[in-house]
Design a protein that fits this description.
about 140 residues, alpha+beta, Alpha-Beta Plaits, 2 domains, three-stranded antiparallel sheet, globular, binds zinc ion
């Protein structure tokens, strides 16, 4: 084993943004991934597990990562949102969890409902994967 000095940790990385689709890291002033156009998320929170994020990103199918983000479901809380995210990742669909509008006040950060957004090209597959209409009222008569 060669002892390589561990570099890249520290405050500088805390503000970096990462693409939820391809896990590519972007500087903090970027808002969208240069490759996928996905809105970037803060890398800091899950910084401890960069390889886990990359492993998940590798599962993602490129054909499900195109187009604008559309809402496919609404989760009641973060736990449910994470569960739905897991289901979608199993199908290779990248998704973005976003606090539902009107609930983004401090007390609700952990508990508030989340919108589950996926790229347009993955929306149909996502709805099938979830088999759940989320109460959005947009009846997508695709069956
Ligand atoms: Zn990307």
């Amino acid at each position: 084993m060669s002892a390589q000095p561990h570099r890249g940790d520290g405050a500088a990385e805390a503000e970096q943004l990462v693409c939820p689709s391809c896990a590519r890291v972007h500087p903090p002033h970027e808002r969208f991934c240069a490759d996928c156009g996905m809105p970037l998320v803060h890398a800091a929170r899950e910084q401890r597990q960069p390889s886990a994020r990359q492993r998940r990103a590798r599962k993602i199918k490129p054909q499900y990562a195109e187009g604008e983000l559309v809402k496919v479901a609404r989760a009641q809380n973060e736990t449910e949102a994470r569960f739905l995210e897991g289901l979608l990742l199993e199908e290779g669909i990248p998704c973005l969890l976003r606090r539902s509008r009107g609930f983004d006040v401090a007390e609700m950060l952990a508990a508030g409902p989340r919108d589950v957004l996926v790229p347009a090209s993955g929306a149909e597959a996502a709805r099938e994967a979830l088999a759940w209409d989320g109460g959005a009222g947009e009846a997508d008569v695709s069956t």
